[in-house]
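Summary of Year 1 activities. Much of the first year was spent building the evaluation harness for sequence design. The harness presents a backbone, in tokenized form, and records the residue chosen at every position. We chose the following record to illustrate the format because it has been used consistently in internal testing since the harness was completed.
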């Protein structure tokens, strides 16, 4: 995927992501849709046990597979403005982007602040390369179901931390915690230091995080297991591709040498078919031209 055309609506958000590592996109989806999604997920919030471990936090509830739980989820995941922003951030580093995660999160009253972290660190390569390298691996999108405020655990971010990747911890005085209302979205880079805040109120903070990553990375949530072919067949072709039913050129993630989208049809077609990027095709053509020239000289 190459970098997309930058429209007027997208440019300010890209500038903010470039400068600060995050941006707030306000009032981009009707609150009725937020309420519909939150309502559909209500039983799951009630039935899911609290998280375990020092990273997730003992007073939080988290669950994934949101496309299985509500028809509203796809409207958020495929929001055109969000996909355009994400495509411009990640498109220079991959042939296709993929859905990395959908996770509903509840931070309950009394929850402590989460440890600051960068989500891209789940992929070791992000820490092996120089800290000033330009590649981004991930873009997160936080969608509030209830108002996010500093006092109830709104996401804490460190502005400019995407340019200070060698620093695992940065002074808390440099951090910000935004107020975000349902219908708005907070986007932040996988290289941005952030964490869930402490909830010092008497009410739970609920929301959803959707993240997108480079198509050649192993996703946090294995989408093709969460949505196997019998489920993915009911999704739109664009959404099926986003969750992983597409090959990433050259030939990465294939099934019997074919694009995995064949699993969504009635039969698995026989025979491998190359899926190559233009640069690979150009290299092959250059090789054959060189080989032909060499053979012509030998025949003389």
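For this record, the design step produced the sequence shown next.
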């Amino acid at each position: 995927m190459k970098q997309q055309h930058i429209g007027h609506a997208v440019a300010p958000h890209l500038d903010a992501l470039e400068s600060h590592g995050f941006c707030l996109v306000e009032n981009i989806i009707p609150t009725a849709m937020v309420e519909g999604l939150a309502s559909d997920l209500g039983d799951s919030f009630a039935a899911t046990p609290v998280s375990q471990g020092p990273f997730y936090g003992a007073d939080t509830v988290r669950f994934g597979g949101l496309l299985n739980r509500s028809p509203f989820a796809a409207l958020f995941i495929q929001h055109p403005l969000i996909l355009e922003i994400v495509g411009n951030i990640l498109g220079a580093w991959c042939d296709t982007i993929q859905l990395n995660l959908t996770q509903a999160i509840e931070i309950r009253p009394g929850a402590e602040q989460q440890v600051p972290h960068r989500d891209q660190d789940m992929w070791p390569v992000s820490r092996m390369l120089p800290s000033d390298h330009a590649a981004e691996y991930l873009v997160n999108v936080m969608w509030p179901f209830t108002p996010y405020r500093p006092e109830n655990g709104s996401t804490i971010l460190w502005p400019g931390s995407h340019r200070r990747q060698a620093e695992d911890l940065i002074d808390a005085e440099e951090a910000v915690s935004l107020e975000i209302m349902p219908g708005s979205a907070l986007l932040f880079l996988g290289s941005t230091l952030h964490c869930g805040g402490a909830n010092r109120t008497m009410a739970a903070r609920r929301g959803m995080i959707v993240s997108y990553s480079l198509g050649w990375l192993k996703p946090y949530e294995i989408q093709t297991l969460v949505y196997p072919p019998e489920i993915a067949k009911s999704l739109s072709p664009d959404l099926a591709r986003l969750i992983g039913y597409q090959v990433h050129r050259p030939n990465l993630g294939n099934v019997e040498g074919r694009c995995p989208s064949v699993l969504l049809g009635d039969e698995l077609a026989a025979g491998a078919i190359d899926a190559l990027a233009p640069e690979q095709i150009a290299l092959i053509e250059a090789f054959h031209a060189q080989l032909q020239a060499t053979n012509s000289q030998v025949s003389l």
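The chain has a mean pLDDT of 90. Quantitative recovery figures across the full test set are reported in Table 2.
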